[in-house]
Amino acid sequence: MAVRTTVLSSAWRNVWTAVPDIFLCDCTFCSCNASTKSDSSEASKFVTLVDMVLSLHKGPLDTFTIHGTHNYHDVFARWIYKLSTKGPEDITIKLTSGQQYKIPSSLFSISHLSFLYLKNCSISLPKKFEGFKLLKVLKLKAFSSTDSDISNLISSCPQLDEVHLRYFKGINCLSIQAQSIQILKIEGDFEDLRIDAPNLVIMYLRLDMVEGYQSVPVQGDMKSYLKQTFGSLTRIVSLNVGSSFLTVIYPRPEAFTRKGIWDQDETEIQAPTLDYLTMITLNDFRGLDCEVAFLGLLLSWAPALEEMKIINIAEDTTDERIFKATKKLLAFPRASTTAKIILT
């Protein structure tokens, strides 16, 4: 029996060092004891495990996923360097304890990446970054970066198909320039948005906080802003917008009317052509004039529209305001003769 066990253990060691997919989580070492000493012991065991896996793994590595709730800042750079030598195609890093993890330059040297998910991180591109030429999916959550770094990261991935940016800091003007992107989901705080993505099919857009934005760059030229934001979205099929975003692009009462947006130099800036847009969703509806005005514009821009859904009506919104807003909305002309407006 002892011999068989030894043979099995030896065989298993040889097998796991060549498995293509690795998932590591420090929850494996969690105990009921919540003491500081216990936390330190759990973290130490996990560090040993990760070091061993990255050192002994010999086969090609397709997927590497790591989840952790303890502090690993002092070993993080070492882990990423070792990981970069394996050339994985799919990386997910979710280390949620303490301050954000600064992504080492070694990660940006992994040339075969096709999927990248980073949570609780700080992103600063190395000067010699040449892009992820094969990256198709980029998901960043609870991260910090700069306008230029995030813009360059996205534009340097020629095959990028899907981008998720959630809960970020340090980005004021969010510029998305990518010919290949089809799915874009943005949820965070920013002052300005520029999108050049002609193949975009699905867009989710939500601004977390607007209280601090009393004056934003888009106020000066509303027509240009709308054209730059939506003008390139000629293939968009599904558009999901949070109400808070509208309070930023329509911050002034005089901008609430549809006429006020296009009453000057209308020949210079044409309304976006949203010929493929079939679904519009507005979240956190309050019945504000800015919301109604924006939805009215979309109704006039989308000849293939099937449904406009207004969901998650804010709790502090009165029935009277919703009734008035709905009445205005139903009165707008529609480019689509089959478009339905649904309130839930």
From TrEMBL:
Pfam families: LRR_At1g61320_AtMIF1
Transmembrane segments: none
Positions of the At1g61320/AtMIF1 LRR domain: 65-330
Cross-referenced SUPFAM superfamilies: RNI-like
Domain of life: Eukaryota
Span of the signal peptide: none
Protein known as: At1g61320/AtMIF1 LRR domain-containing protein
Source organism: Digitaria exilis
